[in-house]
Amino acid sequence: MPDRRNHRGAHPQDRLLFARDAEPDLRRATSDLNWLLTHGYASVSALKLVGDRYALNARQRLAVGRCACSEEDANRRQMHQVETPDLAGAELWIDGYNVLTSLEAALSGGVILLAHDGCLRDMASMHGSYRKVAETIPAIEILGELLAEWNVSSCRWLLDQPVSNSGRLKTMLRELSEERGWNWEIDLVPDPDPVLSAADQIVASADSQILNQAGRWFNLARTAVEERVPEAWVVDLSGC
């Protein structure tokens, strides 16, 4: 069936699955998964182990899996992270869908996860197709205003070419940037991950594989949410 959602908000069961009284088990499960990953356990089998132990459903397991990482990975990511002042005069390469969908979800009241590595991650899944929602334009405007405020010299947005409607999003980003005078380049590429992982420029993403390889990265989604969407529904699984 076609996707007719107008928002990238909460799943109907999220109020129960991520309620305050569910958070302790989610935190313990994330802590256990962090430990298993740190000690070399395979991610799939380790997630099944902790999911079964805490009787988590599929959506809760997805959340725990997105928040956990080994201590080695967490330390590596922290060492290569740059802060807002470092963006002044710099070129920023943006993992387009990764950043945009998290901000859309935050604006629409969806669950946002604060992960062990300090990143914010959403629960959205595009399944090869992207659909503009009511929060898309406001999210782009927030990002553009912040990047201008931080004096970023230029931005290169990378969008997954195989994802349906990437061309439409590219047009939307280009038109908004031209209207506002933002120095943006928007490219469709077969797979942004290897491009961003090998970039000499600062990259903006919360994708674990990119963060494990990037020379310099900026926590754009988290910073944007904290500065412009303070009312966002954040489930904190970081301090495990």
UniProtKB/TrEMBL annotation:
<feature type="domain" description="DUF5616">
    <location>
        <begin position="86"/>
        <end position="222"/>
    </location>
</feature>
<dbReference type="Pfam" id="PF18481">
    <property type="entry name" value="DUF5616"/>
</dbReference>
<protein>
    <recommendedName>
        <fullName>DUF434 domain-containing protein</fullName>
    </recommendedName>
</protein>
<dbReference type="InterPro" id="IPR007368">
    <property type="entry name" value="DUF434"/>
</dbReference>
<feature type="domain" description="DUF434">
    <location>
        <begin position="26"/>
        <end position="78"/>
    </location>
</feature>
<dbReference type="InterPro" id="IPR041652">
    <property type="entry name" value="DUF5616"/>
</dbReference>
<dbReference type="Pfam" id="PF04256">
    <property type="entry name" value="DUF434"/>
</dbReference>
